[in-house]
């Protein structure tokens, strides 16, 4: 059994508050936090550990950027496809119907913005739904009829 020696130290109140918050988050004692910090400070391999931690963080950031890049590509293709189909299938309106169409368009746009705001507030995302609804490419290719 190891024995520990008690030591009284003084901390800046802001630093002590940060130590207390970290101890609560990690569910360890303040003494354990301080002991780990002092051991890290006194060890000779601090730069190696810092480099390894930075490398792990950069790798994680790289993976997150890759995922965002894929999401952005999906969204770009989605908008492009929608606009292409919409423009190809929507006939022009006669002059007499354009004022009514503008008013209806403004009403629909307001509804769209409200729905979008609700979805963003609740965390519902199109890409999450897409990943649940779309089959993997290898299954889709075998099930799709030829010429589609």
From TrEMBL:
CDD domains linked: RHH_CopG_NikR-like
Region (Disordered) residue spans: 129-148
Record InterPro entries: CopG (IPR002145)
Keywords: DNA-binding
Coiled-coil intervals: none
Record-level GO BP terms: regulation of DNA-templated transcription
A single MF term (Gene Ontology): DNA binding
One Pfam assignment: RHH_1
Ranges where the Ribbon-helix-helix protein CopG domain occurs: 8-41
Protein name as annotated: DNA-binding helix-turn-helix protein CopG
